[in-house]
Protein backbone atom coordinates (compact mmCIF):
# COMPACT_ATOMS: atom_id res chain seq x y z
CA UNK A 1 0.00 0.00 0.00
CA UNK A 2 2.84 2.33 0.95
CA UNK A 3 4.63 1.45 -2.24
CA UNK A 4 1.50 2.23 -4.25
CA UNK A 5 1.07 5.64 -2.59
CA UNK A 6 4.74 6.47 -3.11
CA UNK A 7 4.51 5.50 -6.76
CA UNK A 8 1.40 7.68 -7.13
CA UNK A 9 3.20 10.62 -5.50
CA UNK A 10 6.19 10.21 -7.82
CA UNK A 11 3.91 10.04 -10.83
CA UNK A 12 2.02 13.20 -9.75
CA UNK A 13 5.33 14.99 -9.09
CA UNK A 14 6.66 13.89 -12.46
CA UNK A 15 3.56 15.15 -14.18
CA UNK A 16 3.89 18.49 -12.37
CA UNK A 17 7.53 18.84 -13.42
CA UNK A 18 6.63 17.99 -17.02
CA UNK A 19 3.82 20.56 -17.00
CA UNK A 20 6.15 23.23 -15.55
CA UNK A 21 8.80 22.42 -18.16
CA UNK A 22 6.21 22.61 -20.96
CA UNK A 23 4.96 25.94 -19.69
CA UNK A 24 8.46 27.32 -19.47
CA UNK A 25 9.24 26.12 -22.98
CA UNK A 26 6.08 27.72 -24.36
CA UNK A 27 6.79 31.05 -22.67
CA UNK A 28 10.31 31.13 -23.97
CA UNK A 29 9.08 30.78 -27.62
CA UNK A 30 6.75 33.81 -27.53
CA UNK A 31 9.39 36.45 -26.87
CA UNK A 32 11.52 34.91 -29.61
CA UNK A 33 8.77 35.49 -32.20
CA UNK A 34 8.26 39.06 -30.94
CA UNK A 35 11.85 39.98 -31.65
CA UNK A 36 11.90 38.70 -35.21
CA UNK A 37 13.76 41.23 -37.32
CA UNK A 38 10.86 41.89 -39.68
CA UNK A 39 8.30 43.14 -37.19
CA UNK A 40 10.09 46.13 -35.72
CA UNK A 41 10.74 47.38 -39.29
CA UNK A 42 7.06 47.20 -40.09
CA UNK A 43 6.19 49.10 -36.95
CA UNK A 44 8.85 51.73 -37.66
CA UNK A 45 7.47 52.36 -41.13
CA UNK A 46 4.11 53.43 -39.72
CA UNK A 47 4.10 56.95 -38.38
CA UNK A 48 2.44 57.27 -35.00
CA UNK A 49 -0.99 58.88 -35.42
CA UNK A 50 -3.75 59.29 -32.91
CA UNK A 51 -7.01 57.72 -34.03
CA UNK A 52 -5.50 57.42 -37.49
CA UNK A 53 -7.66 54.47 -38.45
CA UNK A 54 -10.85 56.37 -37.85
CA UNK A 55 -10.06 59.76 -39.39
CA UNK A 56 -7.71 58.96 -42.27
CA UNK A 57 -9.33 59.35 -45.70
CA UNK A 58 -7.76 58.78 -49.08
CA UNK A 59 -7.72 61.63 -51.66
CA UNK A 60 -10.16 59.66 -53.80
CA UNK A 61 -12.67 59.50 -50.97
CA UNK A 62 -12.34 63.18 -50.12
CA UNK A 63 -12.79 64.03 -53.82
CA UNK A 64 -15.98 61.99 -53.84
CA UNK A 65 -17.35 64.11 -51.04
CA UNK A 66 -16.87 67.39 -52.93
CA UNK A 67 -20.01 68.50 -54.80
CA UNK A 68 -19.60 67.99 -58.52
CA UNK A 69 -19.96 71.72 -59.28
CA UNK A 70 -17.07 72.45 -56.93
CA UNK A 71 -15.01 69.69 -58.49
CA UNK A 72 -15.61 71.07 -62.00
CA UNK A 73 -14.66 74.54 -60.79
CA UNK A 74 -11.45 73.14 -59.32
CA UNK A 75 -10.67 71.49 -62.67
CA UNK A 76 -11.35 74.77 -64.50
CA UNK A 77 -9.09 76.73 -62.16
CA UNK A 78 -6.41 74.10 -62.60
CA UNK A 79 -6.66 74.30 -66.40
CA UNK A 80 -6.48 78.11 -66.28
CA UNK A 81 -3.40 78.02 -64.05
CA UNK A 82 -1.70 75.44 -66.23
CA UNK A 83 -2.49 77.47 -69.36
CA UNK A 84 -0.90 80.50 -67.73
CA UNK A 85 2.17 78.42 -66.89
CA UNK A 86 2.29 77.08 -70.45
CA UNK A 87 1.98 80.62 -71.86
CA UNK A 88 4.92 81.69 -69.70
CA UNK A 89 6.96 78.79 -71.05
CA UNK A 90 6.08 79.63 -74.65
CA UNK A 91 7.06 83.28 -74.10
CA UNK A 92 10.46 82.30 -72.65
CA UNK A 93 11.10 78.61 -73.24
CA UNK A 94 13.42 77.05 -70.66
CA UNK A 95 13.66 73.85 -68.64
CA UNK A 96 12.95 75.80 -65.46
CA UNK A 97 9.75 77.30 -66.90
CA UNK A 98 8.62 73.97 -68.26
CA UNK A 99 9.06 72.16 -64.96
CA UNK A 100 8.03 74.97 -62.65
CA UNK A 101 5.88 73.70 -59.81
CA UNK A 102 2.21 74.54 -60.01
CA UNK A 103 0.37 76.17 -57.12
CA UNK A 104 -2.87 74.62 -58.29
CA UNK A 105 -4.67 73.18 -55.25
CA UNK A 106 -6.18 70.54 -57.52
CA UNK A 107 -2.92 68.60 -57.64
CA UNK A 108 -1.36 69.74 -54.36
CA UNK B 1 -11.21 95.82 -83.75
CA UNK B 2 -8.49 93.67 -85.37
CA UNK B 3 -9.42 90.05 -85.97
CA UNK B 4 -6.50 87.64 -85.71
CA UNK B 5 -7.65 85.79 -88.84
CA UNK B 6 -7.32 88.86 -91.08
CA UNK B 7 -4.18 90.20 -89.45
CA UNK B 8 -1.79 91.64 -92.07
CA UNK B 9 -4.44 92.18 -94.73
CA UNK B 10 -5.17 95.65 -96.04
CA UNK B 11 -8.26 97.21 -94.53
CA UNK B 12 -10.05 96.77 -97.88
CA UNK B 13 -9.18 93.06 -97.98
CA UNK B 14 -10.17 92.63 -94.32
CA UNK B 15 -13.52 94.27 -95.06
CA UNK B 16 -14.03 91.96 -98.02
CA UNK B 17 -13.35 88.89 -95.90
CA UNK B 18 -15.57 90.02 -93.04
CA UNK B 19 -18.23 90.89 -95.62
CA UNK B 20 -18.40 87.20 -96.58
CA UNK B 21 -19.94 86.44 -93.23
CA UNK B 22 -23.07 87.26 -91.32
CA UNK B 23 -23.27 88.71 -87.85
CA UNK B 24 -25.19 86.79 -85.22
CA UNK B 25 -25.92 86.95 -81.51
CA UNK B 26 -25.32 83.88 -79.37
CA UNK B 27 -27.40 84.10 -76.19
CA UNK B 28 -25.50 83.38 -73.00
CA UNK B 29 -25.57 79.67 -72.22
CA UNK B 30 -26.31 78.72 -75.84
CA UNK B 31 -23.99 76.45 -77.81
CA UNK B 32 -22.37 77.83 -80.94
CA UNK B 33 -21.48 74.28 -81.94
CA UNK B 34 -21.17 70.87 -80.34
CA UNK B 35 -18.39 68.34 -80.39
CA UNK B 36 -18.75 66.15 -83.50
CA UNK B 37 -20.96 68.58 -85.43
CA UNK B 38 -20.10 69.12 -89.11
CA UNK B 39 -17.77 72.15 -89.27
CA UNK B 40 -18.78 74.14 -92.32
CA UNK B 41 -18.17 77.62 -90.91
CA UNK B 42 -15.81 79.35 -88.55
CA UNK B 43 -16.54 82.24 -86.25
CA UNK B 44 -14.87 85.50 -85.38
CA UNK B 45 -15.76 86.77 -81.92
CA UNK B 46 -16.77 90.43 -81.89
CA UNK B 47 -17.94 90.69 -78.30
CA UNK B 48 -18.53 88.50 -75.29
CA UNK B 49 -16.77 85.28 -74.37
CA UNK B 50 -16.95 81.87 -75.98
CA UNK B 51 -16.13 78.97 -73.71
CA UNK B 52 -14.61 75.84 -75.25
CA UNK B 53 -15.16 72.56 -73.44
CA UNK B 54 -14.57 68.84 -73.79
CA UNK B 55 -16.62 66.07 -72.19
CA UNK B 56 -14.88 64.29 -69.32
CA UNK B 57 -16.21 61.31 -67.40
CA UNK B 58 -16.69 62.56 -63.85
CA UNK B 59 -18.29 60.15 -61.38
CA UNK B 60 -19.72 58.12 -64.21
CA UNK B 61 -21.27 61.05 -66.05
CA UNK B 62 -20.16 63.17 -69.01
CA UNK B 63 -19.36 66.66 -67.78
CA UNK B 64 -18.25 69.60 -69.92
CA UNK B 65 -14.80 70.47 -68.69
CA UNK B 66 -13.25 73.84 -69.43
CA UNK B 67 -10.53 73.85 -72.08
CA UNK B 68 -10.14 77.42 -73.21
CA UNK B 69 -11.98 80.74 -73.51
CA UNK B 70 -11.95 82.96 -76.61
CA UNK B 71 -12.80 86.64 -76.71
CA UNK B 72 -13.13 89.61 -79.07
CA UNK B 73 -10.77 89.49 -82.05
CA UNK B 74 -10.19 85.78 -81.76
CA UNK B 75 -11.34 83.03 -84.09
CA UNK B 76 -13.32 79.96 -83.03
CA UNK B 77 -13.98 76.78 -84.97
CA UNK B 78 -11.02 76.51 -87.31
CA UNK B 79 -11.99 72.86 -87.81
CA UNK B 80 -14.09 74.36 -90.62
CA UNK B 81 -10.90 74.74 -92.68
CA UNK B 82 -9.19 71.49 -91.62
CA UNK B 83 -10.30 67.97 -92.62
CA UNK B 84 -12.33 66.05 -91.59
CA UNK B 85 -14.34 69.23 -90.99
CA UNK B 86 -15.82 68.19 -87.64
CA UNK B 87 -15.76 70.28 -84.49
CA UNK B 88 -13.55 68.70 -81.85
CA UNK B 89 -14.81 70.87 -78.97
CA UNK B 90 -18.08 72.35 -77.79
CA UNK B 91 -18.37 76.16 -77.87
CA UNK B 92 -20.80 78.04 -75.65
CA UNK B 93 -21.42 81.72 -75.02
CA UNK B 94 -20.85 82.56 -71.38
CA UNK B 95 -21.51 85.41 -68.96
CA UNK B 96 -23.23 87.65 -71.55
CA UNK B 97 -24.66 87.24 -75.02
CA UNK B 98 -21.83 86.98 -77.52
CA UNK B 99 -21.57 88.61 -80.93
CA UNK B 100 -19.85 86.64 -83.69
CA UNK B 101 -19.29 86.82 -87.44
CA UNK B 102 -20.07 83.53 -89.14
CA UNK B 103 -17.81 82.75 -92.10
CA UNK B 104 -18.92 79.83 -94.32
CA UNK B 105 -16.06 77.64 -95.58
CA UNK B 106 -17.30 77.65 -99.16
CA UNK B 107 -17.34 81.46 -99.32
CA UNK B 108 -13.85 81.64 -97.82
CA UNK B 109 -12.41 79.08 -100.25
CA UNK B 110 -13.92 80.94 -103.19
CA UNK B 111 -12.38 84.16 -101.93
CA UNK B 112 -8.97 82.49 -101.49
CA UNK B 113 -9.09 81.25 -105.08
CA UNK B 114 -9.90 84.70 -106.36
CA UNK B 115 -7.38 86.44 -104.05
CA UNK B 116 -4.42 84.09 -103.56
CA UNK B 117 -2.25 86.63 -101.74
CA UNK B 118 -4.94 87.34 -99.17
CA UNK B 119 -5.68 83.63 -98.96
CA UNK B 120 -2.02 82.95 -98.27
CA UNK B 121 -1.98 85.58 -95.53
CA UNK B 122 -5.09 84.11 -93.91
CA UNK B 123 -3.61 80.61 -94.13
CA UNK B 124 -0.53 81.88 -92.29
CA UNK B 125 -2.72 83.48 -89.64
CA UNK B 126 -4.57 80.22 -89.26
CA UNK B 127 -1.23 78.42 -88.86
CA UNK B 128 -0.36 80.82 -86.03
CA UNK B 129 -3.66 80.11 -84.28
CA UNK B 130 -3.42 76.34 -84.70
CA UNK B 131 0.30 76.30 -83.88
CA UNK B 132 -0.24 78.26 -80.69
CA UNK B 133 -2.95 75.86 -79.56
CA UNK B 134 -0.65 72.92 -80.34
CA UNK B 135 2.29 74.39 -78.42
CA UNK B 136 0.08 75.35 -75.49
CA UNK B 137 -1.46 71.93 -75.08
CA UNK B 138 1.81 70.16 -75.78
CA UNK B 139 3.30 72.06 -72.84
CA UNK B 140 0.29 71.37 -70.62
CA UNK B 141 0.39 67.68 -71.55
CA UNK B 142 4.06 67.43 -70.66
CA UNK B 143 3.53 69.13 -67.31
CA UNK B 144 0.71 66.73 -66.46
CA UNK B 145 2.83 63.74 -67.53
CA UNK B 146 5.74 65.07 -65.47
CA UNK B 147 3.54 65.10 -62.39
CA UNK B 148 2.37 61.55 -63.08
CA UNK B 149 5.98 60.39 -63.46
CA UNK B 150 6.96 62.07 -60.19
CA UNK B 151 4.06 60.46 -58.32
CA UNK B 152 4.82 57.03 -59.76
CA UNK B 153 8.55 57.20 -59.09
CA UNK B 154 8.17 58.63 -55.57
User: What is the count of DSSP helices of chain B, taking H or I runs of 4+ residues?
Assistant: 3
Strand count, sense and barrel status of the largest sheet of chain A are: none
Q: Whole-Å distance between the termini of chain A?
A: 88 Å
| Total count of domains of chain A | 2
CATH topology of chain B: Jelly Rolls
* Mean of pLDDT of chain B: 95
Q: Please report which band the strand proportion of chain A falls in: under 5%, 5-15%, 15-25%, 25-35%, 35-45% or over 45%.
A: under 5%
The chain-level mean pLDDT of chain A equals 67
Gross geometry of chain B = globular
Count of beta strands of chain B? 6
List the helices and strands and how they pair.
The complex is a heterodimer of chains A (108) and B (154).
Chain A: H1 2-34, H2 38-45, H3 52-55, H4 59-65, H5 68-91, H6 95-98
Chain B: H1 11-19, E1 22-26, E2 31-33, E3 41-58, E4 61-70, E5 75-76, E6 90-104, H2 105-114, H3 116-153
Antiparallel strand pairs in B: 1-6, 2-6, 3-4, 3-5, 3-6
Helix pairs in contact in B: 2-3
Give a structural overview.
The complex is a heterodimer of chains A (108) and B (154). Chain A starts with a helix and ends in a 10-residue tail after the last helix. Chain A folds into 2 domains: 1-56, no CATH class; 57-108. Chain A is rod-shaped, with a radius of gyration of 34 Å. Chain A is mainly α. Chain A is built from 6 helices and no strands. In chain B, 27% of the residues are buried. Chain B has 3 helices and 6 strands; from the N terminus they run αββββββαα. The mean pLDDT of chain B is 95. Chain B has helices at 11-19, 105-114, 116-153; strands spanning 22-26, 31-33, 41-58, 61-70, 75-76, 90-104. Chain B has a single domain, classed as Sandwich (Jelly Rolls), CATH 2.60.120. In chain B, α2 (105-114) packs across α3. The longest helix of chain B is centred in the last third of the chain and has 38 residues, at 116-153. In chain B, strands 1, 2, 3, 4, 5 and 6 form a 6-stranded antiparallel sheet that branches. Chain B has 154 residues and is an alpha+beta fold. At the A-B interface, α5 of A face β4 and α3 of B.
